[in-house]
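About this split. The held-out portion is used to measure sequence recovery: a designer receives only the structure tokens and must propose an amino acid at every position. Recovery is the fraction of positions where the proposal matches the reference. Here is one held-out target exactly as it appears in the evaluation file.
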């Protein structure tokens, strides 16, 4: 599997392993609880891709907000007292991908939990934190494995086929 496909997966793993204290120092925003009109959600069917950062990811939904689009990431559990740092940085990655693919920077993203939703400001500080972590991931990926199978059928069914440079089809 190519390195860029792994980016967001590894992002989640790294962030779970990171300490709460360190991320507080990085300035991860705590977010604000909002009510979300789910009738306005637009499902995202294709991954978003930034070729400069070799970053791909797919938020669950987008919602139109003025002239920009806001990514919405859905989590199945109840809302925590403050959003998990891994969720916030995953959302920041989606904000970046939305900006890259639409040319318009979203002012915020939304983390939707089962019982409520958090509005997370996409600040320049959060973006900087995201880039620092992606750089850390990139260095770690220097030793990442290549495609782990020889099955064209797996590639045909893969959601990342259009942006994969190791596809068998
Ligand atoms: S297209 Fe094939 S090689 Fe590429 S990520 Fe998907 S399954 Fe892996």
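Reference sequence for scoring:
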């Amino acid at each position: 599997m190519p390195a860029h496909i792994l980016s967001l997966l590894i992002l989640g793993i790294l962030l779970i392993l990171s300490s709460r204290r360190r991320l507080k120092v990085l300035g991860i925003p705590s977010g604000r609880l909002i009510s979300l009109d789910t009738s306005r959600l637009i499902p995202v069917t294709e991954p978003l891709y930034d070729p400069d950062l070799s970053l791909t990811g797919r938020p669950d939904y987008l919602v139109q907000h003025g002239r920009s689009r806001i990514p919405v990431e859905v989590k199945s559990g109840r809302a925590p007292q403050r959003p998990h740092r891994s969720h916030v940085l995953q959302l920041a990655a989606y904000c970046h991908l939305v900006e890259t693919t639409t040319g318009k920077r979203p002012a915020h993203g939304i983390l939707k939990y089962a019982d409520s939703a958090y509005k997370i400001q996409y600040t320049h500080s959060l973006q900087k934190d995201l880039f620092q972590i992606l750089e850390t991931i990139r260095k770690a990926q220097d030793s990442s494995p290549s495609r782990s199978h020889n099955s064209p059928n797996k590639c045909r069914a893969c959601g990342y086929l259009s942006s994969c440079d190791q596809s068998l089809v």
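Annotator remark: Residues 3-163 form one domain.
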